[in-house]
């Protein structure tokens, strides 16, 4: 199962509502469970550099079925995944990317947010996910 | 001047309305006048391979301020611009990409559509542009 | 608003004057507010490896509207933006890249300098920016 | 021997003078004999897509020590070098790139021009080369 366009629009609308509420200017990307872009919105005045980061956060979250910040803990110097960012055309492993998991525990896509502090990016991504389901994935099977 | 998010959403909504009317499944991208992605929607059941083509068509249209199909006429074997597609990280030079020009004759961005025949792609892109202005650029000045 | 060619030439001339004054050999790049290259000069005897660094510093500064060195503080191991350099085709996050902000507080582009110590790179970039305005950006709105 | 910064500035100034004379808006790049960028100017209102094309034309001319248009004749379908554009990170093989050869017959760099018809691009590149020498290369040795 993949996130539908209607799903993606709902998640982005909620994310942007949250972004406005906390006075930030965000790029918001939604990918499907194959890590292919489904929808993207760049708010006016958002950093141009956040376009690619938002998309890469969404892809990273779906590539490994976990929040980007979790991967970042494992990719620090000396940690097991040091340098993983060099794979898959470039990953972003700090917070702001979250899997989107439906009511059956199936990962249907992911959301990626960039444009402010990583705390704000994460909060806006969370708001987007909550429009559709959760970001908590059961162990397996989780792929659509 | 750049296309706003409100502009981009209006253009994409009109494009998708047209795509549904002619029973097609499209990817629609809008970039600003610096060729940076502003918004993107992939309709359900659209080709995954059309994501990149739609984005590259929009970028190509803004890179040269003209419909992508015009460039394609010039890039055929034996024609003056043969091989131009190798520039700028890859161009798409068949129809489906159009500049978006405001009422003052300023290019504020471009739209790119992919997912069906080039005739249909072009028709859907045209519908998107008409939500905002025209795709006819005066000679100069045209850059924001 | 974008930096004009006249602006870019003035900034580069000042930067190179400063580079000569402190006996360094620099690459100097100016990009517009869409991060697209406007002008570039490589002084004789400057490192060939500095070409790409100067351009990437200028792009990085405009991508996030801040001095490259500020991003570098946040991208260290354990810091919030660790690994951000993997985005946008490669960022450079040590000093030497600065936004160019006009008298209305609008970011019209950025300058990137590479070829010596980061202190010297930063000093030369600063001289270039001062030919046109400042590198201090108001909170918002700042995009052209 | 490499083109100096003074050389590159002189070539670009002449090229831009010619561009203005024929009412065009050009990107002009000069590379040294190692195909590394020496200087670049984008005139106001020039196509953003011409940045990369001008640089690639200059590189292509120095890569093979001949005008880009000569390579283009050989890279047509059925011709000996069909597809050569896929090498070296992307070549541009239509007119507008010319080697710069000094009075001793040594290739010291190349110029690349993009922004108008290939005839105009070639005329502007020629004007730039004439500020420094010729674009006619003796058989060999020609490398610096």
Total count of domains of chain A: 1
Order of helices and strands of chain A: HEEHHEEH
In the CATH hierarchy, the architecture of chain A is 2-Layer Sandwich
Strand content range of chain A: 15-25%
Strand order of the largest sheet of chain A: 2-1-4-3
Helix content of chain A: 25-40%
Question: In short, what is this structure?
Answer:
With 144 residues, chain A is an alpha+beta fold. Helices cover 36% and strands 17% of the residues of chain A. The A-C interface holds A 25, 44-45, 47-50, 52-53, 56, 72, 75-77, 85-86, 90-95, 117-118 and C 34-35, 60, 62-65, 77-78, 80-84, 86-89, 91, 140-143.
Verbal overview:
The structure is a homotetramer of 144-residue chains. The N and C termini of chain A lie close together (5 Å). Chain A has a single domain (5-130), classed as Beta-Lactamase (2-Layer Sandwich), CATH 3.30.450.150. The first copy, chain A, has four helices and four strands. A four-stranded antiparallel sheet of chain A has the order 2-1-4-3. In chain A, helix 1 (5-21) packs across helix 4 (118-130). By secondary structure, the first copy, chain A, is α+β, with helices and mostly antiparallel strands. The longest helix of chain A is centred in the first third of the chain and has 17 residues, at 5-21. In chain A, strand 3 (97-101) and strand 4 form a beta hairpin. The model of chain A has no long low-confidence stretch (mean pLDDT 94). In chain A, 36% of the residues lie in helices and 17% in strands. The first copy, chain A, is globular and about 40 Å long. Chain A binds chain C through residues 25, 44-45, 47-50, 52-53, 56, 72, 75-77, 85-86, 90-95, 117-118, and chain C through 34-35, 60, 62-65, 77-78, 80-84, 86-89, 91, 140-143. Strand 2 (37-42) of chain C pairs antiparallel with strand 2 of chain D, so a sheet runs across the interface. Chains A, B, C, D: InterPro entries: GlcG_carb_metab_protein, PduO/GlcC-like, PduO/GlcC-like_sf. Chains A, B, C, D: Pfam families: HbpS-like.
């Amino acid at each position: 199962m993949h996130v539908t366009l209607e799903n993606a629009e709902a998640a982005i609308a909620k994310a942007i509502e949250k972004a406005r509420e906390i006075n930030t200017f965000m790029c918001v990307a939604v990918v499907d469970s194959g890590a292919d872009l489904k929808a993207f919105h760049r708010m006016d005045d958002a950093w141009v550099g956040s376009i690619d980061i938002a998309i890469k956060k969404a892809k990273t979250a779906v590539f490994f079925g976990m929040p980007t910040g979790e991967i970042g803990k494992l990719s620090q110097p000396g940690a097991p995944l040091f340098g993983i960012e060099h794979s898959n055309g470039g990953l972003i492993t700090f917070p702001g990317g979250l899997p989107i998991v439906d009511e059956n525990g199936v990962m249907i896509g992911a959301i990626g947010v960039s444009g402010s502090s990583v705390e704000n990016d994460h909060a806006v991504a969370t708001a987007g996910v909550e429009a559709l389901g959760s970001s908590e994935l059961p162990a397996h099977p989780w792929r659509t």
